[in-house]
Amino acid sequence: YAPAEAIRALQFAREPILSDEVARENGMSAAQLHDRLTENDWSLLLPIVSDDTLIAMIAVGPKLSVDAFYPQDLDLLMTLANQAGVAVKNAQLYAAVLLANEYLENILATIESGVVAIDASGTIAMFNRAAEGLTGLKADATKGDPTGTLPTCLAEALLTTLSDGEPRTHPEIDLPTVAPAAEGPASRPVICTVSPVRDPGGAVLGAVAVFSDLTPLKELEIERRRAERLAYFQALAAGIAHEIKNPLVAIKTFAQLLPRRRGDARFLEEFGRIATREID
Prior knowledge:
This protein is an alpha+beta fold.
């Protein structure tokens, strides 16, 4: 690790620090800095600055010729330090981009909806795992291909949005599974939303489609209708049973009285009339 005295001095100076010049300065901090430089056999410290922030330093030992560092030496070394600062910043930005892309890929991998994005040239730039399952295409083989590789309904929606820059929603489209070896049905209903991808200036850089399988919802709708029909028939059956029960009660009552009143001609006449009516 760099000595704390060296870091503080570079943060304050933001320019080369020569050990010989530090030796001529007065003060406790200058003496401590000179001691650290001497301990490490450093004759020169160069700051590496990015976005006005000290991000690293270059420590240079004494010249083999034991000569002092001349102004042209310092100019050359500072040019190298500045270039090193640019290189470090670019490396940090590149690492940040890789991390952001990895994070985005992880998010897309967990989304249950299919996501397909194309760039301004119509090339497929993004194709997540859910899109693989819904279309039957493989992401590794699809990325970098032209939009025409996709099923027609997706390709036309993406290219139209790329052309006019307008978002659009398709409440239900029939998405065919283009890979013959894919598992599942040959096609399925999906809801698809397509949006343009724009830069800060508003220029269209591409388009992205997000589509979700409606099959589970369709199945739920079928089950709901089936349940409604079943409930209707249950109510109908209950009503029919009630209508049948009422006349049967009257017939049963007269039938139960018949053994005791079989000699009653009037009763027998009434029984025959009522039983016939209730049976009808």
